[in-house]
């Protein structure tokens, strides 16, 4: 069976790429690779009909410019194509995120992720910076929540850094299932994966919360996150741009969280706050 590869160039990249991915997923596209300037999406030839893209609303949104070309990929090349596009990532010299088919490196932390459709391979700036925070800070014996866990890459690293117990939560069923697989694949025994959102969190307490989601969800759910943090607890937030940092800081201040520091990469931010 052949696949058709769509190579989309997207301007501005976000949120258009995320919306595009979600819409294509609904239409039968089953694999995606984030690229520097957009998205590659794959659909089985038999599921593709000529007017299918007519139903992708983001393509007609005047706020975004999205162009694409296509090519047919024979099944025999499919894995190679995917492998070529998903290269291992090394963060801070001591953490490698790789797929099962990549060779192991010499890094202290070796994380194996089969991303399928979930976000979180370390290729995105936000995941990369959250990994930097986790590598830098003390996680030993800490009770951790990874909110919006995607592939659970951050929870997996937190457990490798000595944290436990850990909860990894994602609203998306695919991410929930993928996180369970990835936790097992990395021999993590302290991670509990759940499907849901902030409504799961009443009466819970964590020493550390990691939340790489997006600006609006963070602003909306900050009160709940803050209530779940123990005194002197730490929260790492990402998924928003530099221009929104003041807004995030202001909401954190309202919820009794004090700004500590932040990283910036490709205009994305990963910020650290502490509960007073
Ligand atoms: C930017 S990805 C981050 C994935 C991973 N934590 C990482 O750092 O690579 C955001 C994730 O949040 C999930 N998500 C979106 N809204 C959510 C919500 N209200 N509660 C929990 N998860 C949510 C999405 O399904 C997605 O997997």
TrEMBL record:
Any one GO BP annotation for this protein: methylation
EC number: 2.1.1.-
Organism of this sequence: Croceibacter atlanticus (strain ATCC BAA-628 / JCM 21780 / CIP 108009 / IAM 15332 / KCTC 12090 / HTCC2559)
The reaction(s) this protein catalyses: L-lysyl-[protein] + 3 S-adenosyl-L-methionine = N(6),N(6),N(6)-trimethyl-L-lysyl-[protein] + 3 S-adenosyl-L-homocysteine + 3 H(+)
InterPro entries attached to this UniProt entry: Ribosomal_L11_MeTrfase_PrmA (IPR050078), Ribosomal_PrmA_MeTrfase (IPR004498), SAM-dependent_MTases_sf (IPR029063)
Subcellular location: Cytoplasm
Pfam families found in the cross-reference section: PrmA
Top-rank lineage group of the source organism: Bacteria
Name listed for the protein in its UniProt record: Ribosomal protein L11 methyltransferase
Membership in a protein family: Belongs to the methyltransferase superfamily. PrmA family.
SUPFAM superfamilies, A to Z: S-adenosyl-L-methionine-dependent methyltransferases
Keyword tags: Cytoplasm, Methyltransferase, Ribonucleoprotein, Ribosomal protein, S-adenosyl-L-methionine, Transferase
Annotated function: Methylates ribosomal protein L11.
Enzyme class: transferase
Chain positions recorded as S-adenosyl-L-methionine binding sites: 127, 148, 170, 212
GO cellular component labels: cytoplasm; ribosome
Main location: cytoplasm
Single annotated GO MF: protein methyltransferase activity
